[in-house]
Amino acid sequence: MENLAIVAVFIALGYFFGRMAESRHYQSIHEREQAFLHLPTTSSKKPLGHIGPITQARLVQGNVVISVDYFKRFLATLRNIFGGTIQAYETLLDRARREAVLRLKESCPDADQIINLRLETSSISKGDTERIGSVEVLAYGTAIYSQQNTSQAAPQ
Amino acid sequence: MKYQSSLPEHNDNVSHQHPVREFALLMLGVIGFILLSFWILGFFVDLAVDSISPKDEAELFAEIDIDWDFGEKSSIQKQTRVQQILDALRLCHDIPFATPVTVVESKDINAMALPGGRIVVFSGLLDSIKSSNGLAFVLAHELGHFKNRDHLRSIGRGIVLAALSTLLTGANSSISQMLTSTMTLGQAKYSQSRESKADETALQILNCHYGHVGGATELFEALQEQEGAWNFGMLHYFDTHPELQNRINAIYHLSKERDYQVGKTQSLDNSVSF
């Protein structure tokens, strides 16, 4: 009986705080994505359009680690029994990817474009079933600066 | 081609179903499946128990030496006295193996029947019972469990319960904890019916030994007094033992039906001081 109560409390706490953290994070993601609309980011090998002579190109990266909450993990474990999409983890990874790309953009606000964008995902505490898992997403790419922008593009 | 910067209108990478809905659906599915399989496997446990003869059972448990540790044992006098009362009932039941008693020092008002024939009595029970008839009823109740093979049934169900939850989710996971609790709730209802049955057997033994059933409800009345104001109706669903008043009523009802007399009880203190 006590076990049931403890698990229920953990689930409720996980749900409440997890939802709160998630909606705050999404709000921040939306605002920052809007703010960085001017910086094209693609996975293409070459710059988009004609941007003139490139004065500088450098490796930029953004990295984030986000933890699963108790509710999500419980839901995912339940899902493991029946199979199907683990919807509980979808928002987690979506947030992690977008946050990583945002951090990458924030590391080079004066670049003209970011090309060759790559995303890597890895799970921390892999295979350890006893612990709450967390996910790491690393975004890396090449920030390029063109001549028009040279005045702002001085390396920091 | 001109690059047009814009954000997507919809996020297609996440599902928009409410997580609580998914949670409720999955939970219902798991609990339904577990309760159903528990019920079916419980049926097979009963079948298996019925096919184990008391002789086989005695042999089986003779080889297993389980170290039950319930706490400090009470004085030899207490042990002997309780054992005497239990042994005196021997003529009135047909349990084919020895039933040694261990009295343990504890505030708990409880007694239990362990596999292998041992009966454990907590000393709190001896303090709250005044007559040897009352104690005899409790001991006869435990004998009733042996007679009805409830100790085997509960072990069998315990194994099924542990195996099911471990198989499904792995030991010690939060889900298996949750499932074990759910199954314990399901089992509570089952145990209640076994307790009533043991009460019935106990009443029979009591009447056979003393010639009347005086003192049968003594423990329940004492417990009821203790429970007092804390008697919330709903909580009793979770008890493994039927609500005290129900048990008392059932005992009265049964005594009437079978024409058992209620005679004078013998004081415990007069026989031997604890």
The largest pleated sheet of chain B is described as: 3 strands, mixed
Spatial sequence of strands, sheet with the most strands of chain B: 1-3-2
Give a count of the beta strands of chain A, DSSP E runs of length 2 or more.
Answer: 3
Low-confidence stretches of chain B: 270-274
Q: What string, H for helix and E for strand, traces the elements of chain A in order?
A: HEHHEE
- How many structural domains are formed by the residues of chain A? 1
Query: Please, how many helices of chain B?
Result: 10
* Biggest chain-to-chain interface with counts: A-B, 34 and 34 residues
CATH architectural type of chain A: 2-Layer Sandwich
Mean pLDDT of chain B: 79
Order of helices and strands of chain B: HHHEEEHHHHHHH
The N- to C-terminal Cα distance of chain A equals: 60 Å
Question: Can you tell me about this structure?
Answer:
The complex is a heterodimer of chains A (156) and B (274). Chain A is an alpha+beta fold and 156 residues long. Chain A has one domain (2-149): Translation Initiation Factor IF3 (2-Layer Sandwich). Chain A has helices at 2-35, 70-82, 87-106, and strands spanning 54-67, 113-124, 134-146. In chain A, α1 (2-35) packs across α2. Chain A is elongated. A three-stranded mixed β-sheet of chain B has the order 1-3-2. In chain B, a hairpin with a 5-residue loop joins β2 and β3. Chain B has a domain at 130-271. In chain B, α1 runs antiparallel to α6, α1 (19-51) packs parallel to α7 and α6 (150-169) packs antiparallel against α7. In chain B, 59% of the residues lie in helices and 4% in strands. Chain B has 274 residues and is mainly alpha-helical. The longest helix of chain B is centred in the C-terminal third of the chain and has 37 residues, at 174-210. Chain B is elongated. Chains A and B meet through α1, α2 and α3 of A and α1 and α7 of B.
